[in-house]
Design a protein that fits this description.
This protein has 232 residues and is mostly helical. 84% of the residues lie in helices and 0% in strands. It has a domain of 91 residues. The protein is elongated, with a radius of gyration of 37 Å. Keywords: Membrane, Transmembrane, Transmembrane helix. This is DUF6082 family protein.
Length: 232
């Protein structure tokens, strides 16, 4: 009621204010056309300020919508993680998903695929929030996921499905980057054994040998000096 009465009073003041001002300045020599021109000038400035405020308001609303979308997606990722953790901890839930039965995976392979799926979803969320650049995404795909056979096998079985599920433009671009890096990794050849990937550093071996010889020589010299001192 108080709010309604206040609104009515404000509207009454606005409507009757010209009549009040005319009665107040009826006997004065006020130049009303000049005041009208000045008022119109302030009206233009007010319009510019209102347009600027509208732009700032739109930018603020866009930021709030982005933050709300981020919070909603993070909550969804958290729920997905909890569901996948239940599947990893309790083998009885794996029949509900049907992933291992469909692809003929062992228990360890099923757990590995779930981990890769969660890792990819996390990277894609970072990419969509613009917290990861394209070089960082390519580095993660090249050095982390597709440096071994597990990531390549996962992408061979699920890459097309992931690309079909991408709804946004940035999401589709993320899946395309991983598809390109997987094709490049497969074209570079099969992954060799861990021992054959890195050749031994001969310089490091030589340095270690030199250090060992120096230590043994120093010990021998110290022993000779000690025996001489004992004889004296």
């Amino acid at each position: 009621m108080a709010t309604a009465l206040g609104i009515i009073a404000a509207m009454a003041v606005i409507i009757f204010s010209p009549f009040f001002m005319r009665e107040m300045f009826a006997g004065s020599d006020v130049d009303w056309p000049l005041l009208s021109n000045i008022g119109q000038t302030y009206g233009a400035v007010s319009a510019l300020l209102a347009a600027g405020a509208l732009v700032v308001l739109g930018f603020s609303v866009a930021l709030q919508a982005r933050e709300a979308r981020h919070a909603r997606e993070q909550a969804a990722r958290g729920t997905q993680f909890e569901l996948m953790r239940m599947v990893l901890d309790e083998p009885v839930y794996r029949d509900v998903v049907g992933w291992s039965a469909q692809d003929g995976l062992t228990s360890d392979e099923f757990r590995r695929d779930l981990y890769i799926n969660l890792l990819l979803n996390w990277w894609r969320m970072q990419w969509e929030f613009k917290d990861m650049s394209e070089p960082e995404v390519r580095q993660a795909a090249r050095r982390d996921l597709f440096s071994g056979n597990a990531g390549r096998d996962y992408w061979r079985r699920h890459g097309d499905l992931r690309r079909s599920f991408a709804l946004t433009r940035r999401g589709r671009r993320f899946e395309e980057i991983f598809a390109e890096e997987c094709a490049a990794a497969i074209a570079s050849g099969p992954v060799g054994p861990q021992s054959a990937r890195r050749s031994p550093d001969r310089g490091a071996v030589g340095r270690r040998t030199g250090v060992a010889v120096a230590v043994l020589g120093g010990a021998a010299v110290a022993g000779m000096v000690g025996r001489r001192l004992l004889r004296r």
